[in-house]
């Protein structure tokens, strides 16, 4: 029997475990899962056309931004800030545009998710420079939400936390844990692929209509920790 729903997942080539976990969870729920790493606008459109050939419709789409790279305002020799803004932002925008166009063409009330990193939302030492494109993409998508309302297309963003699988991210978090050791608020947990997959499935569920423009921080409390780290946790 043919699967009822179809999802296209793009990006994530640096995170094979995340891709395989997403595929596993969606496949278990009877979804047809497709992947693409195209970087050119017209090739993205062609990839979607090939995937939806025949009666198959595009019900959901996920764009995975690359893990944030360490950069610096004063020492940006590799031009990380400009590179990610010109690469990740442009690529993500093109993919979202093509996915929305196909959903409108097919009359599908689809679901779009951009998978970003918490460093794009919360200023951090070095990492946020390489993740600025992800926050920009979310803001563009929030403008697109108004345009997509008549078509029933919902666009949401997940800001995931730091990964223990990435040596650089792990080293950074372990330094933060030492720095905030006496804060009394130990909310620096790693995020895993299973949690990301389950949350993505929630946001792409065609039977849930209330999520639109949502910004979910799947970060183990990192966002909260950075907001309240300066408060004295001991009451007098």
From TrEMBL:
GO molecular function terms listed in the Swiss-Prot or TrEMBL record: oxidoreductase activity
Gene3D superfamilies in alphabetical order: NAD(P)-binding Rossmann-like Domain (3.40.50.720)
Coiled-coil residue windows: none
Signal peptide: none
Oxidoreductase as UniProt keyword: yes
UniProt-listed CDD domains: SDR_c (cd05233)
Transmembrane domains' residue ranges: none
Family from the record: Belongs to the short-chain dehydrogenases/reductases (SDR) family.
Designated name of the protein: Short-chain dehydrogenase
